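Fold it.
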Amino acid sequence: MIVDIEKLDHYGRGITKINGKICFVENALPKETVEIKIIKEAKKYFLAETKKIINKSKDRVIPPCKYASICGGCNLEHLSFSKENEYKVTKVKEIIKKFANEQEEKVKPIIYDKEYHYRNKITLHQKNGKIGLYQKQSKNIIPIDNCLLVTEELEQEIKHISVGKETEIILRMGNKTKEILNSNKENKYILSMIGNKVYQVSQKSFFQVNPIITEKLYEEIKDIVKHRQAKNVLDLYCGTGSIGIYISEEVEKVLGIESVKEAVIDAKENAKRNNIKNCNYLLGKVEELTEKLTEGYDTAIIDPPRKGLDKKVIEKLLQINPQTIIYVSCDPVTLARDINLLKTSYNLEYIRPYNMFPRTFHVECCALLSLKTKK
């Protein structure tokens, strides 16, 4: 079957229509004519794969990765990097308009850097003597000896990994320190740096995977905090305390809340390492601990997991009413949903996309919200 591709969906798949029903096509770009094979038919949509490209888009590039056609890691490696950045801005605009009823003008230009060798972490899977990454849309393991998304140092580490008993092998590398943390070995943590701050990162602790973009993101957050003269900051889902510590010199006090025990241990140690006296941390679920907060906070920094905010957290934020909310999100859909719920008391100033995950459909966002003035 031959079809014309109209646009990309939010997962980087081409979109066309067959007999009035939407069809999502893997490895197809807008303005291309492709021959497809239907691989699934659901009630409201088709899934298809590209068998042959008849008319090729000028934005199509040849992926440099030899695993690109089979690995499920990179969804946009066949799209030029400039068009990838345009796509991500358009995606955020469409999502905030659809789910938060906000104007597209609220989306600022995207921040990006290099397209390859940016990741300081990779998770490899192991089964039946194979070590590698999952195949597209399956749990089959593709054995690999390199990955263009990770740093050159981690690429070398991949080449020397031997088969063991674990089903998962996690490799992390310290930004600037070049230390490598291998989940199969005994080392408990590595030291990583963002700007002039040093962070202890344990195996189970969350830490951003793209150090260059992370520093640019943290600088924007610090600029907001400084400009708004924040004093008492609530740092929710704080992980290793990286954001709170980064902005600590601009504020009077930071309270971080995190549910992962190892991350809280790291956060407390990181405050000591950086000689920071005004950051404190609580261990527990954000939705449970925020219920106990009665102290006034003028600023809330939120960096939740992909599922976004629990409704209890939103209710507490609306009760505390900080003047400023800085919301960092790896999923624009849950971000837009939560903004919509916060709109009773807050105005969205802007959303800035960050290309934290080049060559994939994922996009990081930083949203700035301000408390509405009472009339």
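The longest strand covers residues 45-55.
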